[in-house]
Amino acid sequence: MGNKCSIKELNDEDHWKVLVVDDDNFVHIIIKELLKDFKFEGKPITILSAYSSIEALDILNENKNIALILLDIFIEKESTGLKLSRYIREMVGNKATRIVLMTSRKSEKLEEDAILNYDINGYEEKVQLLTTKLFTIVISSIRSYRDIIYINNNRRIMEEVVASSSSLFEKMSIQDFISSTFCYINSLINLCREDDKCNVDGLAALRFFDDENFKVSTAHGKYENCIGKKIMDSVSQKDFQLVRKAYGMEEPIILNNRFISHYRSSSGIEGIIFIEIKERIPHVEKELLDIFHKNILAAFDSLCLNKEIEATQKEILYLLGEVTEARSEETGNHVKRVSKYSQTLAEKYGLSQREVMFISMASPIHDIGKVAIPDSILLKPGKLTPEEFDIVKTHTTIGYNLLKGSDRELLKSAAIIAHQHHERYDGKGYPQGLKGDDIHIFGRIVAVADVFDALGSPRVYKKPWVMNDILNYFKEERGNHFDPDLVDILFDNLDEFIEVKEKYSDEEKSQILNNSK
Questions:
Q1: Is beta strand 66-72 parallel, antiparallel or unpaired with respect to 98-103?
Q2: Cα–Cα distance between 85 and 91 in angstroms, integer?
Q3: Backbone dihedral region for residue 24 (phi beyond 0: left; psi -120 to 50: alpha; all else: beta)
């Protein structure tokens, strides 16, 4: 089980607990009387009494933060006290509670054995202990217990700092990063983490390139209704002055009841953490928080830089996709819609954040191979001959060959999509005739996204289909052309797809093409 008392438990208690284990009631009475006015660091002592080893174990099970056990070595039987002390250390796993053995029988051999072979903190004769020595023993024992708890707690905090730092470097979004950072810091300074929930008053705010003010992105406690608001409108004027002060500092501001830290990335994105502190933070923990703060700065800067690179990559891939679509007189919004549809399908299918990012960024160049298809075929308004269609189908292999040589995971994903987005779930697609799960999930997803958009968009060879006809087609082709699970996701989330379709519509282009027919 182990003694897992934390500083929070220690500070939440308004007294120190001392367990007296002795079958002589007189001993209990004397100790209570001697310590009735005793205080250490402003806290009195509560005496817990056990008259047998069984009672002692029951009390220990119910109280995980006992500072001192005064244990009669001869309780019940001659060796019971020693056995109980060993059981507490080795079986219960309690290394923090101080154990002082008491005896009314002088035995140098037993004393030597107890001191050398048992993890105890004192061996005292009751005659002396119950008079002059009691205060000394109690003070030194409680002080040792307090220090052990702080050491154990700071070790735990250091472990959390290491684990949290590693976790922060794995975050995929800036919003997720700042939210997790808030919870990790709260866990360290308030010691109130419960099932990874942030039960505290505080908030986190972000400022992006085009923002004039920090806006609250994460909020808890009395600030929970502040999400989306400016930080200056969310905290008191006095607290906002502290926030402004933290803005110009490299270190966090740690006061008796406030923690404020500022994070600035080289890409221009900034974050603010503001937390109300429940307990005063010891100096040693402030040093650990400083270490964690530096790790957060490094992780934040790395994430923001990566996001800037990703945004640049995404824009380049959109442009490449638009160039491809422009050759066939289709608008660039087609690739944007396919990207958004693919992202939604990937998320609902349960792919990882990283996989969702890859398919969202790579899907716009699914038709990159069309750059090698002659205009006479690509722009032909009528039906293609079988020979012409065979040439069109080569765009999948051409696109794959253009992209497959890259070592970048993003372009590898794009190569898969270019190659497999015309495969069919029943194995009748091209270029490889793959079937079912042999088709990469990226290919299956983009197949749904591409056809859903293509059917509803005008082309040189056709008018756009109405939505009912599109949905009927997907019903008919569920399990034939398309992965049935993805078709189900499409229908279950149809509102999201229609919203994307309307947001990135080609209404003007559609009207022009329709009027020319």
A1: parallel
A2: 10
A3: beta
Choose the catalytic residue: 43, 370, 404, 517.
Answer: 370
Domain residue ranges of the chain, discontinuous segments joined by +: 7-154, 169-304, 328-516
What class does CATH assign to 169-304?
A: alpha beta
206 vs 15, 165, 189, 305, CA distance in Å? 42, 19, 21, 15
> Residue 511: is it exposed, middle or buried by C-beta count within 10 angstroms (0-12/13-18/19+)?
exposed
The H-or-E segment that residue 507 falls in is helix 507-516
Q: Cα–Cα distance between 482 and 221 in angstroms, integer? A: 47
Q: What topology is assigned to 328-516 in CATH?
A: Hypothetical protein af1432 (1.10.3210)
Q: Which residue has the higher pLDDT, 480 or 130?
A: 480
Query: Is the domain 7-154 a CATH 3.10.20.90 member?
Result: no
Q: Do domains 7-154 and 169-304 have the same CATH topology?
A: no
**Burial call 406-432: b when 16+ CB within 10 Å, e when fewer:** eeeebbbbbbbbbbbbbbbbeeebbbe
Strand residues in 265-355 grouped as ranges (E) = 270-276
pLDDT at position 285: 63
Active-site residue flag, 43: no
The 10s digit of each residue's pLDDT in 305-363 is 766 666 666 677 766 776 666 555 555 588 889 999 999 999 999 999 889 989 998 89
